[in-house]
Task: inverse folding
């Protein structure tokens, strides 16, 4: 009786160790090395200088990996990123996602004035993206993302050119004015 109980606990701890090892398998160092091929556009610190290139610093690991996989498999369409993701292995995607998620976001410029209309409209998004635009897991962080990039993505969801969870139907209910106001509001959040 006692022996079987000990055996049970031993088996349990063995699987716990294997599980933790799998979860933490991403190699940050390998991710940082690979990220040098992204820095020309996304910046050395995960913040592209150009408003069309999304901020990756501090974005959620799960979301980043899912997007790279979507580019690789052609579910998310963008000629530049599809070409890049096609050459990445599953392990490289995990390492890159873990690396960029671990890079702290460092704002370059002072926040501009808050967009009051956008703030009101954002209330309908907060249930998923969080009150401060922080997101979680597969729901991306929107706070401190570039204004122009956010607007492009909302327009792409609005016209169903970008698919992805509930976003196409949500964006379909927004006018261009709403999308501009919300994007402007989110880009001022730190
Ligand atoms: C030649 C420029 C360029 C290079 C190099 C590049 N990217 Fe991108 N990346 C972009 C652009 C532009 C977008 C926006 C695509 C869109 O509008 O859908 C993007 C989008 C992304 C996204 C989606 C982010 C989000 O918020 O949904 C991820 C993730 C990403 N890139 C990761 C990477 C990684 C990792 C590398 C290096 C292995 C890399 N990129 C290299 C230009 C680049
Ligand atoms: C029911 C949950 C939910 C609600 C409500 C929601 N979103 Fe999303 N949103 C998501 C998910 C999940 C994704 C990731 C989609 C994917 O996998 O491509 C996403 C993606 C996005 C992206 C893409 C970000 C990037 O980095 O490319 C933007 C922009 C966005 N949402 C804006 C909004 C706005 C603005 C609202 C409110 C008008 C809103 N969302 C409401 C769940 C939600």
Result:
């Amino acid at each position: 009786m006692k022996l079987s109980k000990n055996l049970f606990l031993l088996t349990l701890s063995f699987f716990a160790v294997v599980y933790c090892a799998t979860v933490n398998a991403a190699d940050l160092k390998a991710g940082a090395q690979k990220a040098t091929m992204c820095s020309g556009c996304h910046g050395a610190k995960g913040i592209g200088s150009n408003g069309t290139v999304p901020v990756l610093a501090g974005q959620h690991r799960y979301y980043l990996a899912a997007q790279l996989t979507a580019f690789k498999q052609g579910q998310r369409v963008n000629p530049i990123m599809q070409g890049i993701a096609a050459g990445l292995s599953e392990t490289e995607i995990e390492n890159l996602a873990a690396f960029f998620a671990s890079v702290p976001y460092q704002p370059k410029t002072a926040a501009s004035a808050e967009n009051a209309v956008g703030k009101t409209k954002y209330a309908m998004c907060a249930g998923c993206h969080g009150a401060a635009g922080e997101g979680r897991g597969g729901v991306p962080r929107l706070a401190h993302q570039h204004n122009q990039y956010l607007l492009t993505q909302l327009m792409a969801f609005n016209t169903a050119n970008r698919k992805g969870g509930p976003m196409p139907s949500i964006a379909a209910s927004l006018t261009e004015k709403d999308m501009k106001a919300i994007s402007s509001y989110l880009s001022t959040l730190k």
Remarks:
- Confidence is low (pLDDT under 50) at residues 14-23.
- The pocket of heme C (ligand 2) is lined by residues 54, 66, 124-125, 127-129, 138-140, 142, 145, 150, 153-154, 164-167, 170, 174, 182 (CB under 6 Å).
- The radius of gyration is 20 Å.
- Residues 50 and 102 are 21 Å apart (CA to CA).
